[in-house]
Fold this protein.
Amino acid sequence: MGIIEIEGMEFYAYHGCFSEERIVGNRFMIDLRMETDTSKPELTDNIHDAVNYQTAYQIAKKQMDSKAHLLEHVAYRILKQLFQDLPTVVHARIKVAKINPPLGGKVEQVSVTLEKLKTDFQ
């Protein structure tokens, strides 16, 4: 097994419980960790045998473009799509952070981390 991580994906999106957040938007950061069998691409050096990082990024981007109230919901949607589109991923962890959330004071970020097995979605 191997671990593939994509760290520091930054998006501007419109997630939040306050209507202003869904209009004005905010910055979000995503860290993604995927566990997959890397034995075949280790030998073949062929992208078609590996988890394509660009596909994983595009999944995150597409889900970030779709408004949600909760970070938990966004993270869940990303993981669900990852397991559907990247069949060799067996375990994944995602952290979705909202930068400078509107909490009434100075807060650098709030985040939600979800960790799921592929079997959680079958």
